[in-house]
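Z., the sequence and structure:
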Amino acid sequence: MSFRVRLFLVWLAASLLVGVLVRPLEREVARESDVQVLAGLSGNLGQGVSLAVLGGYRNVAANLVWIAMYGEWQYRRVNEVLEKMQLAVALNPNSLYFWIDGARIIANDMPVWQVGDDEMERLYDESDAEGVAIRLKQGRRALRFLDKAPAELEDRYEIPLERGTIYWQKLGDLENAIAQFGEALEKSNSPYFVSRVYAELLVENGRTLEAYEYLKKHYATLPDDDHSALKPLVAQRIAEIGAVLGRSD
């Protein structure tokens, strides 16, 4: 097969993936496994074209699908956005960007789409049961999306960090937020700021002494020559929490 023919087949397959010949996917991200999604696509591309044609171009096709997803995003088409998210992560499940960006769109953007830009405050108004329910629903949907990320990505700090942020800011669940931030801290290359936020979550949850002891241990590990460690700021926070506790050790 000539290079031009192979190139045409790749272009055609990618076009079909984001075009009208692709069978609509399930409306809920969690309903189908990646294997089921791919099987459905392979059976519906038609004209003898299958996902096998993509070969090493699956990541390219996934990127094209993600770009097409943003075409739907700008018009706030929830179902279409979710469909293309699911397709992109099925094609390239190891893309950390897809999982993080997708979860943020679900948790942050979709609640606003539902209530409208002028009614955003409803999402955090505890007297507005409907608005709060929308925020909680989309937060849980974002968590379900992240739960489908492959095990290989669980070795990185970003996935538990994103889960923790959703639990904290969208669900108001400090216990689970603390657990997820703690998990992120155990991963390699976890940034310094994760430790600082973890301590503040402990304080917010009434575990002030635990935060104090944790920050003292954390401070002892911080380098003097890395500005991102913010060592003086950590020392200041230890002193502030110690004053609240009546401790100066």
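The CA atoms of residues 49 and 175 lie 49 Å apart. Residues 1-91 form one domain.

Let me know what you think.
H.
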